[in-house]
Structures are given as C-alpha cells and as structure tokens.
Amino acid sequence: MVATSVPRLGVLWCPHWPVVVAGAQPHEPVAVFHANRVVAHSVAAAADGVALGQRRRDAQARCPQLRIESFDPARDARAFDHVVEAVAHMVPRVEITEPGTLTFLARGPARYFGGEAAMARSVVRTAAQALESSMGWSLDAVGSLGLGVADGRFAAGIAARRSAAQGRAMVVPAGVAATATFLSGLPVQLLVEVAGVPAEFAHLLHRLGLHHLGVLAALPEADVLARFGPMGAFAHRLATGGDDRLPGTHDPPAGMQVQRVFEQPVHHSDALVFVARQLAEDLVAALAADGRVCTRLVVLAETEHSEQSERVWYRSSGLSAAAMVERVRWQLDGWAQSDALTAGVALLRLDPVEVRSDDGVQLGLWGGRTQADEWAVRAVARLVALAGEQQVLVPAALGGRQPHDSHAWVPAITADLAEPGDRLAVSDAPWPGSLPTPSPAVVHTPAREATVLDPQGAPVRVSGRGVVSAAPATVQVGATKEDVQAWAGPWPVDERWWDAGRARRLARFQVLTRSGRLLLLGVERGQWWLAAEYR
Amino acid sequence: MASAPTDLADLATRGLVARAASGAAARERTLPLLPVFADLLPGAVVQRGSVVACQGAAAVSLAMALAAGPSQQGAWAAVVGLPVLGLAAAAEMGVVLHRVVAVVEPAEAPCSDSMWADLLAACIDGFDLVVLGPGTQQVRPATARRLVARLQARGAMALTVGAPVFGADLRFEAVTQAWAGLGQGHGVAQGRHVQVSLSGRRVPQARHAEWWLPAADGTVCPVEPATQQPPVVVPLRRTG
C-alpha cells in the first residue's frame, strides 16, 4: 500500500480557543459554557478540577473564583480570522475546520521552508505573533499552540494536540506504517475527539477491552466490519493509518459553484448574508439532487476594488445550507473588522471543492422532516422577501425569570428552521424565583406603564425589605381603571446585582380585577408596570 | 431507471404515501385538535379551510389551545398581527414552538392593504395554521373575502383573535371565567375555570363545555364536576 492517496497535512490547533478569545489572563481560571456544560477551560481552571462536559454548578463548586463566559462561535470565528490571515501569508489554501483549528497541505510549504520541522516552527511562530500583536491575547492561559504534520487529517490532528501538550511542533514520519506506529499506543477516545466518531462507539470499544488504537488496528478488517458495521471499518482504517476520508468522498463535477454578481456593490453584511442564504440553498439543493453533501467549501467575496477574501471551510459531517450561511457570516465579519475593506462587495461565490455521497438524514415518512416543513421553510423565505428580515420572526428559548425573558422572537433568517436544536433547547437551569405555571398568555414587550393605588388613593409602594405599604385597591393601565378583587405578592427579584448596567430589582404581583382580568404587574423603583396578562 | 424514483418522490410530495399510511383519506380534509375539544366538536377535528374565531376574555388562550393539536401533528403555524403572544404559555399549552413563525408589522411603516394581502396569501400558502391577531383587522373586507377563498382552496385553518373582518365558520367564546388560587395578598393563580360555548354556521345549537383554561400546569383540561378544583397543583419546584 502506498501512501499517495493520503495527503500530507499540517494542522494548527489552539487548545480551548474560546477561552483565548474571552481574553483570559495567565493563571486566571476561566471556563466557557454552552448549554450549561463546559466546552473550554483555561489551564488554571483545569488545575482546580474543571473538566470538559462538566455542569456549571459542579465547575463552580470545584473552582469558586471561576470566570464564566458564554459560548459564541461567531465571535470565536471572527477572532480566529487574525490567525488564518497570518498563516495564509505563508502557506496556500488554509482550511478552517472550526474556530481554533486550521488545516493546510504540508508538502509544498515544507519544501519552501526547508523541511517540515522548520516549516512547523515558523507557522507556529507566525500564528502566535499574530495573536499577540493584533489582539494582545496571551496563550499562557491555555498552554501553547499545537502544530502537527502527518499523513491525513486524523493523525495530523492528534499530532497537533500532542504538540500543544509538549510545547513544540510534532512531525510524524510519512508512510502508512509510520502513521500506524504513531497511533498504536494512543487511546481510542481520540476517535471521538478528533475524528468525530460517536462517543457510544468508543465506549463500546472500551467495554470490549479495545483500549488503544493499536489493538483495534491489529484486528482483521473484515471482522471489524462484520461486528461494527461501516463505522467500525472507518475507525479501523483510521487506526491503521489509512485514508481518513469518509467513503464516497470525491471531487465534485465542474460547474457546481454558485455565485452572485452585484451591479450595485453591497455594503451591509446582512444583505450579503441574505444572498448567501439563497446561494447556499441552491447549492445544497443541486447537490442533494445527486444525493451528495458538501464537506469542503470555498467562500469567495470580492469588492469592486478587487480586494478578496477567500476561505476554505471544512466540516466532516457535511455543510447544510444553514452551516454554509453561518460560515459566510463568520468570514464576512472577520473581513470587515480587518480594516482591509475600501469598497462594497461586488461578488460572492460559494464553490464546493469536496463532496461525498450523503448517507445522512432522509426526509421522514413517519417522523423526521415532512412536507409541511419544506413548505414552511419556503414560505418563510417568501415572507422575508416581502416584509423584510426584521419582520419575520421565530421563537427562541432564552431562560429567565420574567415572562419576556424566558422566550424571545428572533429573526427567522438567523435560525435554522429545519433544526430547532439549540434555538429552543430549554436548559435545565432552574431559574429560582420565576413564576409557577400557568404562564401569561399575553406578554407586553416593552411593559406598559401602570398606576396602582391603595384604598386611600395613594400609590402602593414596596419597601426594600419587600413589605407592601397597603393592599392595592385600583389598577390603571392607559385609560382603563379597574377595582382589584384579589391579589398576591410581592414576589421580589434581585437580578444581576453584580452588573450595575443590567441589574434589576423589582417586585411582582398578580392582580385580579373586578371584571375578571388577571394581570401580572411589577414595581421597580416606585414605578408600576404591566408586564403580562393572563388572557 | 430515472423515472421510478421521480414518481415515488412525486407521490410523497402530494402526501399520497402519508395518506395511505394513515389509512383514512377523510382525515386529510380535517385538522386534529386536542382531545379535550371532543366535548364540543365530534372527533375533535376541524375541517380544513375553516375560519375559527376566538372571542371573549380567554381568546388568546383559546387560540393557543386550538393551535396545539395541529401543531403537535406536524403543522406549522404563522402568527400574524399578534406580537404580544406569550411563548411560554403557548409551549405549556402544547404548541410546538419550533414550528411557529411570526410576522410583525414594522412600527414605523404600517402595512398597506395590498401588502397585507400579499403577506397573508404567502402565510396561507405555506402554513397549515394561520393565527390572525388584531393587527390584521385593518384589511379591507373585500381583501379578507379573497383571502378566505384562498384559505379554503389551500386547505389551511385560520384562527382569529380580535379580527372579525375575516368572518367565522366556528366561534369559540369563553362565556364566563373565574380564576382560582388567588387571595387577598396570598396564593398564586392556579387555573381559570371557563365556560366555553361553540356556535357557528354548521352548529345548529350552541354547545357548551367547562374547562380549566389554563390549568395549573398551563394545559387545558375538562373540569371534574365532583371537585371543582384545579386538578394539578404544582407550586413546588426544584431550585438552585
């Protein structure tokens, strides 16, 4: 077997990139959370016992002084653009796998720099300098950048992770045998972390006593396929240093690219993203007609002054239309902040450079995606074209104590309609102090001013200790004034007291009027508000 | 070779495969409501193409309860001219939020009549369920008639809340309402006892039902005659 089919790749990997973007100082414990779980943490936090996947409460229990940041992939991608820009000056065709990881073909640059080790050193140095100089960020909080050079994405990715731990670039000798030797002593858990194999599969291997990649590689391929199916065969191929592309991957036929030339150069990134969405949907539909999905996409934007931004984006599971749009947005945001723009954008092009047969989701006959979903997605596109982006909204779950905090309307264009996923994922945060069900059927955003008077006609007040001055007798909202029949409260809330700009301190009441209307009122600094109605 | 899959895809597009699977072609002409509506409508279904008006003090809750059934069966809902809809309450009532889309009128530039006609036509074409709030009341009667005709042709259902211009095939109205659980400075609202009446063109005699709308957990359920108390009381919650 000759290694020609497996490309020689370099992978630059920044451990815990979101923590770097959060501006972590050396020795500062910082963790980034997504859906209540740790997705990245600094070295200092790890020393106190914070680990990936931990719940927020557990992490805080281990490390009370932990600084908590929320996960924002768009911000991470924008920031990572500095590194990409710097590295792209040295090596051609830099491919962004995710914010914090980039991949490039190593063979050419290695010849230019006089060897892979020399190339690896200069790439790391350039990337680190780009970080320090442009943003003033320090990598000390997360360790150091990792750079691995090896045959194929999987081995190079692992080499990059090990290199970050060792603090110097790591070059795995070329050839299938050398790659297999490098991998043999490593745990199978890396299949999950680097190659995106389902965690259950790695657990299964563990339970069967296959703890290392070498042990898996030693099994006959046919037996692995028979026992574990295609996923097992894929893992086996990775472990033996073989081709790590998913089966069915190939170059697309020519002419699949889609582009839009603007007669009037576009200055707003929102308008570009809107066009990108149409282009992406066309492209995905054209690929889907052949049963294919794009795994590597080149996004090119060009201004009328011929300034170009070209980025290669990779996603092993395939890029959906929404994922493509997200990447276009990241790229444009990164470009816009680099101050290299002097004119409006005149050309936007999406070019799939690697596709594979789509083994993914089929439209469900029972369950899954239905025809109604397809129609609705099309109707939303039409409504956006008619009414504008800000006028067509979809719900998103936020979590909060007030009726208007728990859910919000967000522009439909920013959401992936087919996959509710994170948009409506209700975190298991308990929100102590939120009102019990039933929730109000009508929520006023913003809240409407109200006046609440006691039987003597004086405004009802709530003291700092949560004591009501007198029982409410009348409620006036706008021009309607009503007598109070029953009431309950005050239920005080003291939110975000640590943040002077966003702190809120209010007391809430439920008030039932004589006409049978149930109102949710709030009083904040002596002013009463009608927050919601149970209509 | 190319023709066979195309035919199959075409069949699936027209919903014929799904229809064969459900085994009842008649069901395709109706939308399923929550089981509690069986008190008022036989089989708890509404004909596609109907305009259903929700009136009275519990109109918004009624609209949510009506929308919950189709929504759980995979229907998408467009909410037009009702920006105040409480999403948490809708979710508790059983509406599947990821199949809800809202169209709001820009505050600075109110929509013209033809704009409303285009928007609502797009909603009717794309969604099985269109909730029309007070914001759509400015539509001219002639436009409203055209839209209703389109609704019948397309087989969607319209739920109106404070928009009588669209007429009504069925009228749900909360005749009486009484909140339970609230005292003088104590307690918390634990449900609303409503008497709902249904009238309409195809309903010769008004029908009545007594429900908790909403009940203590935010859903809708019939009142048990023996207790007259909210069936579920869940004031205790797990906290931080």
Description:
The complex is a heterodimer of chains A (535) and B (240). With 535 residues, chain A is α+β, with helices and mostly antiparallel strands. Chain A has 5 domains: 7-174, Reverse transcriptase/Diguanylate cyclase domain (Alpha-Beta Plaits); 175-244, DNA polymerase, domain 1 (Orthogonal Bundle); 253-357, DNA polymerase, Y-family, little finger domain (Dna Ligase, domain 1, 2-Layer Sandwich), CATH 3.30.1490; 371-424, no CATH class; 442-534, no CATH class. Chain A has 16 helices and 21 strands. Chain A has helices spanning 17-21, 43-47, 56-62, 73-88, 107-113, 116-135, 152-166, 176-184, 189-195, 199-207, 213-218, 221-239, 269-289, 321-337, 371-387, 403-406; strands spanning 8-13, 30-34, 37-41, 67-70, 95-98, 101-105, 146-151, 170-171, 249-250, 258-266, 292-303, 308-314, 345-357, 392-397, 407-411, 442-453, 474-477, 480-495, 504-513, 518-524, 527-534. In chain A, the strands form 4 sheets. In chain A, strands 1, 5, 6, 7, 8, 9, 10, 11, 12 and 13 form a 10-stranded mixed sheet that branches. Chain A has a 6-stranded antiparallel barrel with strand order 16-17-18-19-20-21. Residues 361-368 of chain A have low confidence and may be disordered. With 240 residues, chain B is α/β, with parallel strands linked by helices. Chain B has one domain (29-222): P-loop containing nucleotide triphosphate hydrolases (Rossmann fold, 3-Layer(aba) Sandwich), CATH 3.40.50.300. Chain B contains 6 helices and 11 strands. The longest helix of chain B has 14 residues, at 59-72. Chain B is globular and about 50 Å long. The interface between A and B is large, with 62 and 70 residues.
